[in-house]
Structures are given as structure tokens and as C-alpha cells.
Amino acid sequence: MKVVVIGGDGYCGWATALHLSNRGYEVSIIDNLVRRYWDVQLGAETLTPIASIQQRIQRWRDLTGKSIDLFIGDITDYDFLIKALHKCEPEAIVHFGEQRSAPFSMIDREHAVLTQVNNVVGTLNILYAMRQDFPDCHLVKLGTMGEYGTPNIDIEEGYITIEHNGRKDTLPYPKQPGSFYHLSKVHDSHNIHFACRVWGLRATDLNQGVVYGVLTEETGMDEMLINRLDYDGVFGTALNRFCIQAAIGYPLTVYGKGGQTRGFLDIRDTVRCMEIAIANPADPGKFRVFNQFTELFSIGDLAEMVQKAGIKMGLDVAINNIDNPRVELEQHYFYAKNTSLLSLGLEPHYLSDSLLDSLLNFAQKYKDRADKEQILPKVSWRR
Ligand code: NAD
Ligand code: USQ
After folding, report:
1. ipTM (interface pTM)
2. Is the pTM of this model over 0.80?
3. Class of 2-374 in CATH
4. What are phi and psi of 242, to 5 degrees?
5. What are the distances in angstroms from CA 118 to CA 32, 43, 102, 124, 380?
6. Residue pLDDT, tens place only, 298-314
7. Which residues contact 156 (CB under 8 A, 6 or more apart)?
8. Where exactly are the structural domains of the chain?
9. Which terminal residue of the chain, N or C, has fewer Cβ atoms less than 10 Å from its own Cβ?
10. Which one of 181, 212, 231, 255 is the catalytic residue?
11. Quick one: CA dihedral 271, 13, 220, 45, positive or negative?
12. Over the stretch 148-182, which tens digit does the pLDDT of each residue have?
């Protein structure tokens, strides 16, 4: 089966491209490498030294005999996109190719506009390409749990059944996202839903939680296949950041009270979820929504878990509750459903002491590459 991975040079995309290739899928990567450019602009670097996309793909081929085609270009350029898709003739498109940082989208007007244009136009172009020439192709699109916000009721998987004035309907779950980035995902979801209803396309929106970890079966095979591991205040995410902070002796940066609760998953489960979604396509005309996380944690609890694991390894780990640069609830109800992927066969890698140990060890191996100036958050949500 032919699969295109858009954003295949990124954190989730690289791991997924290799995983699918390993499982016998014919994989092509589309990426404009803009993420590497944003890192340069921010003066931030992944903790791990990542090879160029060409070197990565070559090494994968040398090691496994499996080839991955590469198309370097911007999916907001429709002409490029449709030509690349015609060269691959995909049966599934996995779409990771967006600007994915909430703080980046909140830097200023330019970054908010860049984020929404990049994400919404890119996805809209994919929908038009599918309508034009690939109407049977299955779109597997990365959304985010943050589309829902933190409502004071249980979060369903995409839809909620409501009774109102004696009538009943199942409707899209209400959305209250917390940044212009998270909003871009809501806009995408609406556009994809519309394209499914009106043009009969098929799509799965995967509302993914925060991903942690770095090694997968494939990216761990060789140093040249190593994945990115972001720790800076713009692209670094909570648990990965805490492990790296612990490894370099920096107090863990819990924003505010730390009662913020989110869905989390191991990157080994991200790649498996992609495989499951592709192998079980949505029906034509169907906009299917899965919540893609395996466990819920509060940020404060995660920091304590990392502190405990670090101390066991002889590290000196402090926790620092700093002023929250974001506007968000710091103590709230949060319960979200996640049964769809489990019922299709996902066997989660739950967060364990051994995973924390391995992530801490991994971070220690590269700790000399860490720049402490990049850790504190510099982007404020407030006026
Ligand atoms: P990433 O920044 O590491 O990778 C994104 C890739 O997409 C980059 O290689 C970038 O160059 C490419 N890209 C961006 N815009 C493009 C465009 N217009 N044309 C072509 N390529 C483009 O991000 P990631 O962490 O791998 O996240 C991938 C997806 O998963 C995103 O959509 C993100 O919103 C979603 N997601 C990520 C997480 C997480 O914790 N990392 C959690 C939930 C959802
Ligand atoms: N946080 C801290 N300290 C830190 C970093 C974050 O307390 O050092 C807090 C934030 O305030 C927030 C929570 O941790 O309450 C999560 O922040 P994050 O930066 O780990 O994740 P987020 O901004 O939500 O974005 C990440 C990815 C994004 C994805 C999202 C999934 O960058 O692409 O969509 O996770 S979710 O959070 O479920 O929406």
C-alpha cells in the first residue's frame, strides 16, 4: 500500500515514515524542511544531532534495503502538492506537516498569521487535491486534544449527543482551544468535516495528546536515524522538557500551579496509531475522530515523577513553579475518552520508571548540546 507522510522530516513524521516503511508500506515523504529553518531563526536546536533528510533516508536504505521517496516542497503551493501526489499515487495521506507550537503561534501577529495560513491552507490544498484526483484516498490528519480545551464535562471522541428542547442530535463536540495554533487545528477539523460531508471524502482526525520519548524500534537502529528531541521554550513539550532539564541540572519549569491536566502518549504509540488508522480506513463520506492519547497526567504530577526518577539516578532535581506565560486553567476537571484506537488494537506503552530512566539517560548522553538560555519561556499570552 502506498502512503504519503507529509511532514515526514519532523518528530512524529520521521518516526512514522520509518515505522510504516518497516511494515512494508511504500512510503513517500513530503516536507519543505521549514521546521529546521524555524529552529535556526529561533536560535534553538534539537538536543539530538539530526542528520539531513537525504542522509537519513540513504542510511535507512543501506540498513534495510527499503527506499523512501522524498519530495521537498511546501504544501501551501498547490501546484507542487498535486504534482508530488501524482508521482506517489497514495492510498493514504498521513498529514503531520503543520506549524505545531502553541508559543510560536503566540509570538506576535506575524507568527499567528503564519501558523494559521500554513496549517489551514496546507490542509485545504490536500482536500482539493483529493477531490480533484484522489477521491478514494484516506486522509489521516493530526489534530490535537487541545482543540477541546478543558471543559467541565467529559470529552467525547469528536461528537456529543445533545438533547435540547425535547429534540436530540449528535453534533461536533464544542471546541475551546487555548492558542492560535490550537485554533488552526479546529479550523482544519471544520474544513475536513465539510469536505467529507459535501464531496464524500474519507478522513480520520487524530486528536493527539502531548507526545513524549524519542526512541522507536526504527529510529533506534542507527545514530544517523536519530529523531529530534526539542527542549526549548517554544517547541519543547512538557515531559520531554522535564527529562532534559533534570539531566542538565535545571529546575523543572512547571507553569503556575501545575494542575493543568493533558493527555499523553509515548512516541512508540504514535507510530502504531498511524498504522492502525491507515489499516482501518474511514468509510467514504465519513469524518471520523479518534482521541489519541494513552494516559492523563497533571503537569505537577509529571514533574514529581521526573524528580523521583532523577533522584534515584543520583541527579539533583528541583521543581520551580514559575509564573504561567499562558492564559489557561491551572486547576480543572479533565476526563477524555480514548477507546476507539484501543478497540482497534492499540496496546499502549504506559509511562513507566524504565521509560523515564531511558529518557533521562538519553538526555544525559547529549546534555553538552543543551543551551540553558533556551529553556525559560519567553512568549507571553497576555497583552
Ligand atoms: P514537527 O515540527 O517536528 O514536524 C512538522 C513537520 O512538518 C516539519 O518537518 C516541517 O518542516 C513540516 N511542515 C510544516 N509546514 C509544512 C508545509 N507547509 N509544507 C510541507 N511541510 C511542512 O512537529 P511534530 O511534533 O512532528 O508534530 C507533527 C504533527 O502532529 C503536527 O500537526 C502537530 O500539530 C501534531 N501533534 C504533535 C504533538 C507533539 O507532542 N509533538 C502532539 C499532538 C499533535
Ligand atoms: N507546561 C509547563 N511547563 C513547561 C511546558 C509546558 O507547565 O515547561 C504546561 C503548559 O502550560 C500546558 C501543558 O504543560 O499547560 C502542555 O504544554 P506543552 O508545551 O507540553 O504542549 P502544548 O502547548 O499543548 O502543545 C503540544 C504540541 C502540540 C500538540 C499538543 C497536544 O506542541 O503540537 O498539539 O501538545 S495537546 O496538549 O493535547 O493539545
Report:
1. 0.99
2. yes
3. alpha beta
4. -60, -40
5. 11, 21, 14, 10, 22
6. 999 999 999 999 999 99
7. 173, 337
8. 2-374
9. C
10. 181
11. negative
12. 999 999 999 999 999 999 999 999 999 999 999 99
